Amino acid sequence: MSACENLVLTGWGYPEYVAAAAVALGALGGKAEVKGVSRRRLPELLSELAAADRGAQRCRRVYILGVSLSGDAAALAAAVKAFRKKGVAVMWISALKMPEEVSEAVGDSLEAHVMDGSLLEAVGQAFGSDVERFMPFLKEPKRASAEVREYLSLIAAAQFCYRNYQDESLYATAARYLAEGVKPVAWGPEVRAAVEHYERYGDRELIGKSEAIKTLQDRINRVARHDRARVLILGESGTGKETVANQIHNKSPRAKGPYYAFNCASVAKELLEDRFFGHEKGAFTGATEQTDGLFLMADGGTLFLDEIGEMSSDVQALLLRVLEGGRFMRMGGHEELRCDVRLITATNRDLPAMVREGKFREDLFMRLNVVQLRTPSLREHKEDIPAIANAWWRKCHENHVLDEGQLAALMDYDYPGNVRELFNILDRATALEESDFKLLMREHKEMNASLASGLELKSGRIPDELDAATRFHVRRVYDKYGQNLTRAAEALGISRNTVRKYL
Question: Long-range contacts: 393-399, Cβ < 8 Å, 24+?
């Protein structure tokens, strides 16, 4: 910890935490360092700070604002007592009572200031400060002024930078700007850039603490540093392949360079060459001016090509040439151009199988498959569903979260459409103003019975419910007979209409 007179520790996730830190900063004359910390991390962080001789000796007081003390009581007590031995006072300010086991463990080593109401009011009372200026941060953003909404964007960007890039500095800057009343027009260029970055990429974030997500995040962090290594991302539709590509670019030395994402299935195959390499004026009917393609536009940065398996063999050959020498020509052109692009590709198709079948060039596959990452399906890390769902819900419902019953209903499903399907369900709940998630999920399962059957067929798992098991068997027989309705009905001994019903 750097030398400071006071240390202010506050929580993550809610604007009120930053507003509370701003009140404390104002009362302390700005002579304080601000850090965000979770309740789980709090005992560990205090232990680290207490063990850092120089930092602990120079810091006179530690203020903990609103962070719950429901973590490891013994570890928390040991850390607080270590501070006390060095003459550092620790004060906890909250709108909630201290857990009894923590109170017994810390004894008089921790000074507690608890007040009914909001955290902001508790902090104001503890410091003898007027908090009226900060009360708008307790309102719903839709009701806040334009200036307050800009501060809220800054706070959200600061949390995003911490979660995705382990950058804690912007959180402290947000609190300091708020304390000093720095208007948005006077924010520094780096702060502005961070907010713009969040507004562009804030909805593309890997959320979760499961082993599957931790492993993926670790590999992203490692490969991002090597900005010339090509990456092939494999995974089912809706698992966040573009999110992974975004993170690789944003964590790489090319982060300040251009980033372009293109879906190879979004245009006709015969137009891909033009989109990749551009064309000269007069190259074809309607080519009234020279255009740059994606490779030239992404020069010095990153190009992400999704659905790479949808390219024709002719375009595959052209792409291979660019990868081998970094050279290409515009359509209708004679001048060879060069580009320096990091290529990230993705597909939900089985590329090795396509190579074996002669549908995808083996030499191109080898060029693309330098580093291979796999995005896990949501059913492989269902423990992350609460965190993913609540992150979406907070953004759309003014920082409110789902209750335990709603989360339990969301957990009771395998999501063939992965995270995208989960977001669709939450979007439907919002549009219908439906709070009964058991009903919501029951209706969703009925609407998507064929998708669920496809997932069960893929996994080989027979469902327990009789109706679901019947659908599973009908689907399997239907596929066995080449999806011929008449033959499937004859084999099953039921009518064609009954087969249709179960399909």
Answer: 393/426, 394/13, 395/203, 396/426, 396/430, 397/430, 398/140, 398/141, 398/142, 399/14, 399/15
| pLDDT at site 1 | 44
**Which residues, given as ranges, of the chain have pLDDT below 50?**
1, 54-57
Q: What pLDDT is attached to residue 482?
A: 66
Identify residue 400 by its one-letter amino acid code: H
In the DSSP assignment, the letter for residue 140 is -
Which CATH class, in words, describes the domain spanning 6-201? alpha beta
Fold of 211-374: Rossmann fold (3.40.50)
- The DSSP symbol for 460 reads T
pLDDT in tens, 316-330: 888 888 888 788 888
| Residues 193/197/200/202 CA torsion (nearest 10 deg) | -140
Classify residue 2 by burial, with Cβ atoms within 10 Å: 0-12, 13-18, 19+.
Answer: exposed
DSSP 259-306: EEEEETTSS-GGGHHHHHHEE-TTSSTT--S-EE-HHHHTTTSEEEEE
Residue 344's H or E segment, with its range, is: strand 342-347
The model's pTM? 0.74
Token look-up 């396509």 returns 354
- Tell me the CA distances in angstroms from 79 to 12, 18, 89, 195, 269, one per residue in order: 21, 24, 12, 35, 63
Residues of the chain with CATH 3.40.50.300: 211-374
**Number of neighbours of residue 77 by Cβ within 10 angstroms:** 21
